């Protein structure tokens, strides 16, 4: 290997920035080293630059003191291990890949979002609305890269990932003891992280010690998975989501199998999340996968492949719905307050969410606020608790993305929450329409916060009218918050415990 980690036999006299500055000044220089041992990095008795001993430089500067051989417990290595090592010539070398400027991986893009007869290999299944595939044209290159990663890991020195934060790309060791390209999704307690294996689509919790920096040469190949959703079927009548049995049937039919996909469109969230490709799928024997689930009673067919073929003017009803949007745990974030119910229920948006909401609002107006709206209203039997939809707000008659919280069939009304703002309304069935693909990609912009460490003065009472009045005065303000934990909720999304550090009036 071209790069090895070294340390001198001098012990620190005090911790100062001066010592670090002195060491950093030698980067890019050619150094000569006499190796004493190589058990944990390389311990060297001499490390010289231009005939000047680095250890002596640290001692002379008051940054280190000499320690004897007994104190270091180092046994001299055979003479044959003495070597000269040259540092890498570029600051972007793979030894620095764990720094905050770690390589970025691009996501794979189909040439045509309505391409037909695309051959893929299924690598991971969450449900028929959420599964991951490797395009077959990438498989050979991916396999070659995996071999190269295996060779690299067996020969490279142990190097820690220096930026263990969400969004950093790295190599992570899976339970099969092999290393794969990954992205850190979240940092967990006990020195662990959740990573996304970008070439397969699955996630796992991994110890920080099982991470390595991602070398630049392994960043050229884009993510080898695409995220797919079958749009031609829906959960069987009476079910809002896919049952375990339906997901098992689908997994058994497609996992590790080669499929042929016809694409019907793409929902691009324009962020770190993968675009969702809406597909109709067949196996290599031309058997339609949707038909398999329909035949077992696990699914109902919503349309045939030809009903939403390329060139069709009828918008495709979404089968994948907005993901949750929230700040990272432990991060300081600016949020805009949009709806306050109590100190335990504060609905906010990220302060920089304006552009995405404006584009979404325009798209909703173009599709839904027209006399000849092409999107049908939901049939009474489809107005179900938990259903994603687009509903008309009674206060301004505009259309917004929503989720149904309860229904009153006798009154023909539903109680909905507008997922991008957090407020609620009672809406007539006639004012509820299906959510189509083109408005489903943007993550839901509102999320619920709960102030940490407080309660009403009298634990048996509700919050006083004065508190409610104060909360109302905060709507539209920008707050600085630190997210301390996330509690998953089945219908209302995630409730985030926060520390509110400041409020700025708008």
Description of the structure:
With 506 residues, the chain is of the alpha+beta class. Helices cover 16% and strands 33% of the residues. It has 8 helices and 28 strands. The longest helix has 20 residues, at 136-155. Mean pLDDT is 74; it is low at 1-5, 35-45, 68-100 and 304-313.
Helix content: 10-25%
Overall geometry: globular
Strand order of the largest sheet: 7-8-14-17-16
**Amino- and carboxy-terminal Cα gap:** 57 Å
Q: Strand count, sense and closure of the main sheet?
A: 5 strands, mixed, barrel
Per DSSP, what share of the residues sits in E-state strands of 2 or more residues?
Answer: 25-35%
Radius of gyration of CA atoms, rounded to a whole number: 29 Å
Q: Would you report the number of β strands? A: 28
Structural class of the secondary structure composition? alpha+beta
